[in-house]
Amino acid sequence: MPHVSNKKLKDDDQEALYKEFIQSLERCFDRRKSLVVLSQFLTHTEKEMFAKRFAVIAMLSRSIAPAIISQTLKMSPTTIETMNARYQAGKYDWVVKTALKKNTIWELLDDLTENLNTAGGFLPPKIGRGRYKRI
Question: Which among 23, 40, 134, 135 counts the fewest CB atoms within 10 Å?
């Protein structure tokens, strides 16, 4: 889990630092640079955390049950319920409107949830001939 210092900056300084951070990211975000910059900037844990949060928002926007999301992404039900409450309150509207326009995220999420399409993950997985056909 990422660690944030308990020593807080002044509100004005924190806001200025945040704005500069966002502007710096905007300067490096094109197809060639963004992957390299984020790979160098974020730790493995941070990348996983942000990717899972993004996937949760995408799945909530598709009305997938929080229990299924928790099981699929191996996240705690409490975290999913907290994010669901924020989603229901409209806190992620811009993420849904802008970042989730591409179809690639939906294809990935379909692959992730395909194994759980057995009555919410309660039925046993497919067995026998043809179980590896989709691969």
Answer: 135
